[in-house]
Amino acid sequence: MTGSDLRPAFHACERPAGPRMTPGRTVNFVNRWLLALLLLLPAAPAMAQREPVLEGGRTGEVLGQADAAFLRWKAEAHAPGLVWGVVRDGKLVFLSVHGVQDVDAKRPVGPTTRFRIASMTKAFTALAILSLRDAGKLSLDDPAEKYVPEMRGWRYPTTDSPRIRVRDLLGHVAGLVTDDPWGDRQQVLTQPEFTRMIAQGVPFSRAPQSGHEYSNYGYALLGRIVSNVSGMPYRAYVERTILRPLGMNDTGFEVRDVPDTLLARGYRWENDAWSPEPVMRDGAFNAMGGLVTTANDYAKWVRFLLSGWPARDGADAGLVKRATIREIAQGSNFVQYRQRPGGDATTCRQAGAYGMGWRIGVDCDLGLTLSHGGGYPGYGSHVLLLPEAGVGIFAFANRTYAGPSAPVWDAALALLKAGELRGAAIQPAPALVEMQQAARAAYTSGNLAPLEGKLAMNFLLDRSAENWAKEFARLKTVVGECPTAEPLAPSGNLSTAFRWNCIRGKLDGQILLAPTTPPTIQALRFTPQPN
Predict the structure, then answer these.
(1) Closest Cα to residue 427, out of 520, 493, 497?
(2) Count of alpha carbons within 13 Å of 505, Cβ hemisphere only?
(3) Cα–Cα distance between 88 and 388 in angstroms, integer?
(4) Is 461 inside a domain boundary?
(5) Which domain holds residue 488?
(6) Rounded to an integer, what distance in angstroms lies between the CA atom of residue 320 and that of residue 310?
């Protein structure tokens, strides 16, 4: 698990991050255009330190400092190799590699080194399910047993237990027990063996739809649903409909197909030494954690997901609709508090829930976050998406359950504090602009005449025109006339906050429009801020 996990500490598939780090020394930078050149160069000498590839300017400086924190994390977590990257505005703007992919051969990690990313695979499984839903081949509210017949004989924990829906498996609310680290070792299970396992039924941890409990078994069932509904193996469906269209040609599920020269071998750290983990073949639990990918390829996945935000007009011809991408952020209603990962002294607690292959949080500094860790015998990983800012940060390591969540989140906070994490400004709807201008005219004139024809039917019932004139007069005694206004801060197309600059202070307020055609003002509120 990761530091942002909602599950108890003993679970394994998304294991605890290593020691928390803070940025240290600043590394040298190279300009973004060197990225292509670096990928063409021969491998660096064994154990040689490579410099990060990043864009210049303040962003490059901040990420360079964060790179030092990743190096410290790597050392204290005893990870042989590490790669991390930052996607921003649809581009891979930072890529840094450290250490070796093979302890014996001492091959250095590179942008095309293959890592297993464990539970970060679940996001691909969730999108595969949603794509089949979009194609009309399944419903999220259908019983899962409709697509997996072996589940029909399951004995539920109570007579009033609801049948498990596809949606319940996506959000880990099917009542199945948290199954790390057992689930990790089911990777090699054959499909016939999995069929027999399903038919035997399961002991339930709780009634379905009564609480969140992370289940690898549940995502393996989703993989079986993808296979049965699509008519092809889960692996083939994901490769054909997601990986290849995105150009993720170095990504797949069968680790044994990866040349030794390109594979980050998985290691555990025990008895003060690295020991190789067994190489587990692709099997029936691949939908919960079997993907093998590279930094270069994974950046394409992050770029694709971030392209779903914000909602907008225009062509919508991707793998799935943009609205479907945004749907992954719809968490279940089992919201819990969690501590934000990282070493920031002002770390806040988040309200978080599980969406569809993602942990969804509302962070007090970063806003909407989508994150997930990956823990697996020989590997640890973490990814953080900040869709409102168009930024994604990810990291892979090749040590058992060494998930670098702390430095990933610290890098995001470093960008924020440096003023380099700016979301696209929300443009106010024309109706809001018009209503604010009319409200300012009303304030200046001291009466509601400029708002004639722009008020909803409730407005004067809630407060008379005479009392509004008195309110305008009272506000002017506090802050005076307000000759200028700052840009609107809309929360949607029909509501906005505003600030007017006045002679003796500020006048803050809100405009809320009614659901009428055309829109009219249902509420207007003022809060004076005198000097």
Answers:
(1) 493
(2) 13
(3) 11
(4) yes
(5) 430-530
(6) 15
3-state secondary structure at position 507: strand
Separation of CA 257 from chain center: 29
Yes or no: say if 374 and 359 are a contact pair by the CB < 8 Å rule: no
Q: How far apart are CA 524 and CA 522, in angstroms?
A: 7
DSSP secondary structure, 268-296, as one string: EEETTEEEEPP-PPP-TTHHHH--EE-HH
Residue 511 lies in a domain: yes
The more confidently predicted of residues 391 and 53 is 391
**Is residue 484 in some structural domain?**
yes
- Position 56 scores a pLDDT of 56
The per-residue pLDDT for 422 is 76
Supply 187's token pair.
Answer: 């990777």
Share of the chain above pLDDT 70, in %: 88
Q: Is the pLDDT of residue 57 over 80?
A: no
How many structural domains does the chain have?
A: 1
Query: Is 436 among the domain residues?
Result: yes
Tokens matching residue 381: 């990983």
Q: What is the mean pLDDT of residues 87-94?
A: 94
Round to whole Å and give the CA distance between 451 and 462. Answer: 15
7: confidence class by pLDDT, cuts 50, 70, 90: very low
* Mean pLDDT estimate for the chain: 89
Query: Residue 461: which CATH number?
Result: 3.10.450
Residues linked to residue 267 through DSSP beta bridges, in sequence order? 276, 399
Beta strands in 249-378 (DSSP E): 267-270, 273-276, 292-293, 336-339, 349-354, 359-363, 367-376
Own/partner long-range contacts of 148-153 (Cβ < 8 Å, ≥24 apart): 148/198, 148/221, 148/224, 148/225, 148/228, 150/195, 150/198, 150/199, 151/198, 151/221, 153/199, 153/201
pLDDT surpasses 70 at 30:
no
DSSP E strands: which ranges in 184-329? 267-270, 273-276, 292-293
Which amino acid makes up residue 415? L
pTM to 2 decimal places: 0.86
CA distances from 267 to 48, 270, 324, 351, 378 (A): 20, 9, 37, 34, 4
**What mean pLDDT comes out for the span 346-372?**
90
Q: pLDDT tier at 60 (50, 70, 90 boundaries)?
A: confident
